[in-house]
Amino acid sequence: MRSLLKVPVLSAQVGKRLCVLHVVGRKSGKPYDVPVAYTRYEGDILVGTAKRPWVSNIRKGVPIEVSFGGPRQTADAEVLTDADSVVRLSEVIARDNKQWAKFNGMGTDAAGNPNKADAYQSWQQGCVIIRLTVR
Questions:
Q1: Which of 25, 56, 77, 90 is the most buried (most CB within 10 A)?
Q2: Per its UniProt record, what SUPFAM superfamilies does this chain match (predicted)?
Q3: Alpha-carbon distances of 102 from 52, 55, 94, 95, 97, rounded to whole Å
Q4: What is the domain-level CATH number for residue 58?
Q5: Which domain holds residue 118?
Q6: Vertex 42 angle, CA 75 and 127, to 5°
Q7: Residue 71: which residues within 8 A CB-CB, separation 6 or more?
Q8: Domain count, the chain
């Protein structure tokens, strides 16, 4: 996936909703390149994911690098774990990315609005939101 994001013609299609987070292990110092789906919201980048081990390497106040198929950019990152933030922002991501909503078991009503109970259940099952502010 990371390789496809570097190919000029393919990156526009494959990477339409994908970016790569370049995370450094907080203990090991080992670099990790993690492809993730993202949504742009109020000038920030939102990433919804399960609380995987690599997420622990993202710490508020410690910048990370992110790439959108081009050169790396520096971003301030924050992992949101509280129910209110995760449910609210999961709904934002689900409205923007129907595949993400489907993957995370979030249904919609007739108007296309995400089901709040599904978003809450996603939080209960360990979903977190990573908010990136690209510098």
A1: 90
A2: FMN-binding split barrel
A3: 19, 22, 8, 11, 9
A4: 2.30.110.10
A5: 4-134
A6: 70
A7: none
A8: 1
26 token code pair: 């907080």
Q: Strand pairing partners for 20?
A: 35, 67
Token pair of 108, please?
Answer: 């919609």
- CA dist 29 and 135 (Å) reads 23
Q: Give me the tens of pLDDT residue by residue for the chain, a chain 135 residues long.
A: 445 444 444 444 445 789 999 999 999 999 999 999 999 999 999 999 998 889 999 999 999 999 998 899 999 999 999 999 999 999 999 999 988 999 999 998 888 899 999 999 999 999 999 999 999
Q: Are 51 and 4 in contact (CB under 8 A)?
A: no
Instruction: Return d(Cα 27, Cα 131) in angstroms, integer.
Output: 22
What SS3 class is residue 86? helix
Q: Quick one: three-class SS letters along 94-135?
A: HHHCHHHHHHCCCCECCCCCECHHHHHHHHHCCEEEEEEEEC
